[in-house]
Amino acid sequence: MRRNHFLGLVFTSLCLWAAATYYLFLHRPVTKGDEASRVEGHLEALEERVRSQYAENERLLADLKSLFYRQRVVQPPVAGKAGAKVSHPEIESVGQAPAPAPAHLEELKVSAADDDSDVPVDQEGHRPPGPAHVHGAAPAQAVPSAPAAPPVPAAPEPKAMVPVEEKSQLVKQQADQQPPAPPPPPPPPSPPQKSPQELQAERLRTLAAGVGGVPAVAVLVLACNRVTVRKCLDQLLTYRPSPEHFPIIVSQDCKHTPTADALTAYGSRISLIQQPDQSEIDVPPREKKFRGYFNIARHYGWALNQTFFHFNFQTVIIVEDDLDVAPDFFEYFSATLPLLRRDPTLWCVSAWNDNGKAALVDENAADLLYRTDFFPGLGWMLTRETWAELAPKWPASYWDDWVRQPDQRLGRACIRPELSRTRTFGKVGVSNGHFYDKHLKYIKLSDKFVPFTQQDLSYLLKDNYDVEFVRRVYDSPVVTYQELRSGSIVAPGPVRIPYYTKDAFKHTAKMLGLMDDFRSGVPRTGYRGVVSFMYKGRRVYLAPNANWKAYDPSWS
Length: 556
Prior knowledge:
Elements: H1 2-26, H2 36-74, H3 89-95, H4 102-118, H5 164-177, H6 196-209, E1 218-223, H7 229-239, E2 248-252, H8 257-264, E3 271-274, H9 291-310, E4 315-320, E5 323-325, H10 329-342, E6 346-350, E7 369-372, E8 380-383, H11 384-390, H12 399-403, H13 406-409, E9 413-417, E10 422-424, H14 434-438, H15 462-475, H16 481-486, E11 495-498, H17 502-512, E12 518-519, E13 522-523, E14 531-535, E15 538-543
Parallel strand pairs: 1-2, 1-4, 2-3, 6-9, 11-15
Antiparallel strand pairs: 4-8, 5-10, 6-8, 7-9, 12-13, 14-15
Helix pairs in contact: 3-4
């Protein structure tokens, strides 16, 4: 009985010790700042302690087994049937002990059972001596032994258990020790943002290429320091039939802020470009007072280069910033453009009549057009081909008189109207208002819309025009200025006043109220030397001899 208590006490102590060890292991404090190597060392130490405990448990079990056999040798046999096995509940209870070493206890239980069952018991209850009990004694006869139980494989050593908190900390530390992930590749570079000037240029090039199969005609407005450019722009925007077919480009010189602000206010309705070169132009000393003409020539050259060669327009209508325009301004240029492209003897179309005063024009002939050898300007149309010819030799000043020279005109003419489709309102300018007060302010601006695009204008082609024009002029009767002025002419229809010298022309022109100057020998509005005008309701031709051959540049 005392032995049973002793065995129970030992077994209970072992269980309590194992449970306390396991509990302390699970609840040990975890330091969050441990390094990975420190954790690994701790785990190895813990595993070593578990292995030592297993070895100690095995030693204790071996001691228990040895003690059991010593007690059994001196214990009297228990009465019972012959061959009955002696039950040892203590050993069985030890065999049923829980972890940590069930395999060792099971092996002990099997071996103990085998020892008891293989030893026979005589009639008096004594076991005969055998090799297990008497050393060196041979058995009287061979006793067949029971088949040996198959070997029980040793239980694998249990892995050390790591608390969840420590495991999470270990994973975090290992993650912290991992090299940082490489940064993601940078996104592909976005295309550079285009400036407003680049976007404007692209839009203009698109229009120049053609909308609906019809290339656009650019309207180039030359501006400087007059905020009254708004008057001109408002009329152009009012009469323009299509912003796609007639885009308006305003080129500003002078860097005049109020004018720039006025232009910017139009937004996308116009395209604003600004002449960048504001440097002082080297002007000959005797022409210092004409510096404005040098600035104008530079501005014209730059603006036309931009419009033709940068924006790629094929045709441009040039308008100064101080012009009023007629309601059929765009209709007029639309109808004459095919003539300009078809006839190589034409190099421009102008909306201006230099002798367009109300008393000198037929207000009932708003649809009448002429050829002229004199470049009118003041609202005129030019092609890219002609500009490519003029641009390389563009002058430093007085560009309008320069294009009237024989080397630039090359015998070519322009088209001009009976009634002007433009009129200047700019009294202030490089001419100081003198020319405006004397002449320009009296020009009659057409106020009727003429459907030119519905008319046949082939009469303006040189082969058709020259024959009819010469016939009509020189078939008209010759009269003197005195007869014309007195009204004594009896014959109806047009009449002709001849001139033979420069002075004769200038004298007669002044008396009639005509412009009397020449440029490279060409009178204003003249064609083949003939100036056509109205006088008191009658058509009059101021004309040279019928055998006229060419202009005399010395008449300038």
